[in-house]
């Protein structure tokens, strides 16, 4: 329970406290250079964004002492996106189906491979989210809904000062 929360609660915070309120035009997930990696950051954990079906090489300065949470691969289903889903169990099945389509995950930090990535699969508790202006789901601003996320995540203790490189691959 890093910083008093479960891994599932942290992944939900990644979604609803950080990723969804950020406007699409400055959203770190749509930024292939890293210039927007500091958008919306606060607290003891620094969130890094994944990409949407394309490679990216980002340079990001993370303040010393920050733990780091980022997805290798993640999915999310909400009632706002999938209006035909009517229960928390259906939301969970929706995210699980997306995750189950992945065959192979690879990750490394500073060229050191991380093995056993399957054990880092986390499904969040049901959480509430409110979408901001020009949001990445392209839904109306201030839409409030419930969602569940699922995915393979890395949660790193604060790294030593200096340059570090993470590499992720999903097949």
Major beta-sheet overview: 5 strands, mixed
Order of helices and strands: HEEHEEEEEE
Extract low-pLDDT stretches. none
**Helix proportion range:** 10-25%
The outline comes out as globular
Could you tell me the number of beta strands? Answer: 8
* Class by SSE composition: alpha+beta
Characteristic terms for this protein:
3-stranded antiparallel β-sheet; globular; 171 residues; 2 helices; alpha+beta; 5-stranded mixed β-sheet
How do you describe this structure in short?
The protein is of the alpha+beta class and 171 residues long. The protein has helices at residues 7-19, 88-100, and strands at residues 45-47, 67-78, 105-109, 112-113, 121-123, 127-130, 144-156, 166-170. Strands 1, 2, 5, 6 and 7 form a five-stranded mixed β-sheet that branches. A three-stranded antiparallel β-sheet has the order 4-3-8, with no helix packed on it.
List the helices and strands and how they pair.
Elements: H1 7-19, E1 45-47, E2 67-78, H2 88-100, E3 105-109, E4 112-113, E5 121-123, E6 127-130, E7 144-156, E8 166-170
Parallel strand pairs: 1-2
Antiparallel strand pairs: 2-7, 3-4, 3-8, 5-7, 6-7
Account of the 3D structure:
This protein has one domain (2-170). Helix content is 15%, strand content 27%. It is built from 2 helices and 8 strands; from the N terminus they run H-E-E-H-E-E-E-E-E-E. The strands form 2 sheets. Strands 1, 2, 5, 6 and 7 form a 5-stranded mixed β-sheet that branches. A hairpin with a 2-residue loop joins strand 3 and strand 4 (112-113). It is globular and about 45 Å long. It starts with 6 loop residues before the first helix and ends with a strand. The mean pLDDT is 90.
